[in-house]
Specification:
five-stranded mixed beta sheet; three-stranded antiparallel beta sheet; 109 residues
């Protein structure tokens, strides 16, 4: 499933059902941060956001975390971006880059 960032909108970066690969339990505590990169891996400056930005655990969920990007960020339609996520929990660290495409929304899903 492709991931999208919506031009002219506040964007919520949502991580769902994060699990510890060793214990197979949901990651409901720890520190999760993210940055935004261009398609070449260069960290982007976003007005009002300090990197790395923290993600917040959704209380009572099974491993769901979110972070926010303000609508003031001038996304370019059709351009590729990456969300670089660092997860630190139970003494282990994971790092992932999630590719995203910027587009103009066509509905309110």
């Amino acid at each position: 499933m492709p991931h999208y960032l919506y031009v002219g909108s506040d964007n919520v970066i949502l991580l769902e059902s994060l699990k510890d690969p060793i214990t197979n339990t949901y990651i409901n505590s720890g520190t999760i941060t993210f940055t935004m990169e261009d398609e070449d891996g260069n960290e982007l400056e976003i007005p009002g956001v300090t990197w790395p930005a923290s993600m917040t655990y959704i209380t009572g969920s099974d491993g769901q975390w979110y972070g926010e990007i303000p609508a003031s960020w001038p996304l370019q339609e059709g351009k590729q971006y990456k969300v670089a996520v660092t997860i630190v929990s139970e003494g282990r660290t994971a790092y992932r880059k999630i590719p995203c495409l910027a587009k103009v929304g066509t509905s309110f899903e």
